[in-house]
Design a protein that fits this description.
2 domains, eleven-stranded mixed beta sheet, Rossmann fold, alpha/beta, single chain, elongated, 19 helices, binds adenosine-5'-diphosphate, binds potassium ion, binds ligand NAX, 512 residues, UDP-N-acetylmuramoyl-L-alanine:D-glutamate ligase, seven-stranded parallel beta sheet
Length: 512
């Protein structure tokens, strides 16, 4: 699903109005009706105080129109107009007139007004600012936002939590609504998925307000949200008359004394994802434990006992996954540098192999085309330098990925994959996966998919999704705390089954 910028949403808005020959207030009414239906389906007339805080732009207009619909259906409402500017939008004013015709008299909050009381049992509708926010809210509006956040009431944000800009981190982190739930119009917003801004969102859901399909289709979005719908077409079925050679030979290179488990995790995940053959290359000390723990994996050893010092491959693998537990010793860095020069097929580069690259930027030019780099935030910083905020990070990372022609995976709660100027935002995974070795499993999964013939970009998108899904399935059975990297691998098979199962079973995963 495409993620639009604010400007693209305004364009889609305008296009819809022109093509469908409607007026803009009709679109607002559609939006308000969808909001109303969502609330009504859950409350079913329950008597609870609904306090609507409405700005003076179109987000506020949505709020006012919603208030009218709630009132018409017998709900107890109070409308507070947050009067932060003289420049009221046309459709806000129209809806203000309509609500007055219904004998509802909003309370106007200005700079010197007392803040209205909010009980923890109230429902607050946040329609103060929408996607039009372009500067920090005034102090008194900020105080109101803090007052709402302190109320403990359920806060339903319209379109986007007020105070959250669409294209940068907030100017003042206290001046942003901490929404309990966000009902967002038509398309997801990038800020929902970034660590600095996603914290204000909690849960979100999209409402289809009828923006024209043609404009949604033809707009090129810089980011795409990856759900099951995007994943299923990437799946490559296993063929009846295939053999293990059909599914590729993966090489997993890594480990050092005390860190052989990382290779074990990656090799096991690689096999479980379907790689036909897997060979691990480790320092001598890893031989026995690997042979015993993952019997399906073939093992080659370095001449060095504790570290990788010279990588000699007796065959040409289809793909190499490298870096887990490998360390950053001088001799290891040299061996990795030589391998980069020799290898033509794409590699999946992780962990200390990334740290070696960061320390030796000259090596970057030797990375095989369409290789996949999987840094966590600290490793990313070593590669691309410090950033100002999440948007700056994405821009810097995009530039890096383009310059070196690699697929860059920024790992996190919503892992983002960058390639050739475009971003793919993952939707699976959970905080249980913040655990030792879960990155090693991801490297194994992606390597296993490349081995089977998935295009590197698709292998990455599919692999990141599958990894998170396997973690989600495990967590749904045993809870977040019990998620261990090795347990994620045990659910890879269930993950595939989930991806291939009929849609109604997995519908709930499409929400945030
Ligand atoms: N296509 C869509 O998705 C539709 C969007 N609609 C609503 O329209 C909203 C966008 O409306 P607007 O463009 O009117 O913008 P907002 O309602 O977000 O903000 C109102 C205006 O306030 C001004 N402003 C920005 N930052 C400010 C600040 N810190 N202090 C004071 N004033 C500030 C700006 O001039 C802005 O246009 C969406 O979020 C959505 O709720 C709906 O009405 C229907 C259609
Ligand atoms: N809060 C979270 N929500 C979802 N996924 C997470 C979260 N924290 C970590 N992960 C995932 O777990 C993996 C951790 O990788 P990494 O930090 O490299 O672990 P390690 O180095 O221990 O192997 C990544 O795929 C990341 O996206
Ligand atoms: K809002």
């Amino acid at each position: 699903m495409k993620i639009f910028s604010a400007q693209q949403i305004y364009n889609a808005d305008k296009f819809t109005i022109e093509k469908q020959q409607i007026t803009s207030d009709v679109l607002m009414e559609q939006a308000a009706t969808k909001l109303f239906e969502w609330i009504h389906a859950r409350l079913r007339g329950t008597q609870v105080n609904i306090k609507l805080f409405c700005g003076i732009g179109n987000n506020g207009g949505d709020g006012i129109a919603l208030a009218r619909l709630l009132h018409e259906h017998g709900y107890s409402i109070q409308v507070h107009v947050v009067n932060y500017s003289e420049k009221r939008s046309k459709d806000f004013l129209l809806n203000l007139e309509r609500i007055k015709e219904n004998k509802i008299w909003p309370d106007f909050i200005n700079e010197d007004s007392d803040l209205p009381e909010i009980s923890p049992n109230d429902i607050v509708v946040d329609a103060i600012f929408g996607i039009g926010l372009n500067r920090t809210p005034d102090k008194w509006v900020g105080r109101l936002i803090q007052h709402i956040n302190a109320s403990q009431a359920f806060v339903l944000a319209v379109d986007i939590p007020s105070g959250l800009p669409m294209d940068r981190s907030p100017w003042n982190t206290y001046y942003v609504i901490e929404a309990s739930y966000v009902l967002s119009f038509q398309v997801p917003k990038l800020v929902f998925f970034l660590p600095e801004t996603g914290v204000y969102v909690n849960q979100w859901e999209l409402l289809d307000i009828g923006l024209d399909a043609e404009i949604l289709e033809k707009t090129d979005a810089a980011y795409e949200l990856v759900g099951r719908q995007e994943i299923l077409p990437l799946y490559r079925p296993r063929l009846k008359f295939s053999h293990k050679g059909t599914y590729g030979h993966s090489m997993i290179i890594g480990g050092s004394y005390g860190k052989i488990g990382a290779v074990q995790l990656a090799s096991n995940a690689c096999l479980t994802t379907g790689s036909g053959l897997v060979t691990a290359f480790v320092p001598k000390c890893g031989y026995q434990s690997l042979q015993t723990s993952v019997p399906e994996v073939m093992v080659l050893t370095d001449e060095d006992e504790r570290n990788i010092s010279k990588i000699t491959l007796p065959f040409v693998p289809d793909v190499i996954g490298i870096g887990m537990g490998i360390g950053t010793e001088e001799k290891t860095a040299k061996a990795f540098g030589n391998l980069l020069k020799e290898m033509k097929a794409p590699m999946v580069i992780d962990a200390d192999a990334l740290n070696i690259l960061a320390k030796n930027p000259k090596m970057l030019k030797d990375i095989p085309e369409k290789s996949i780099l999987t840094p966590h935030p600290k490793e990313l910083e070593r590669l691309i330098g410090a950033w100002e905020d999440d948007f700056d990070k994405l821009e810097k990372a995009k530039t890096f990925a383009k310059e070196h022609e690699v697929i860059l995976v920024i790992k996190g709660a919503h892992t983002i994959i960058l390639y050739n100027g475009k971003g793919y935002v993952n939707t699976t995974g959970n905080p249980g996966m913040a655990t030792a070795g879960s990155g090693d499993v991801l490297t194994g999964i992606i390597t296993g998919l490349v081995a089977q013939g998935y295009e590197p970009l698709y292998a990455t998108i599919f692999g990141v999704y599958l990894h998170g899904l396997a973690g989600d399935i495990f967590a749904s059975q045993q809870g977040y705390e019990a998620v261990k990297a090795s347990e994620i691998s045990t659910m890879i098979g269930r993950g595939f089954m989930d991806i291939l199962s009929p849609p109604e079973v997995v519908e709930d995963r499409e929400k945030g």
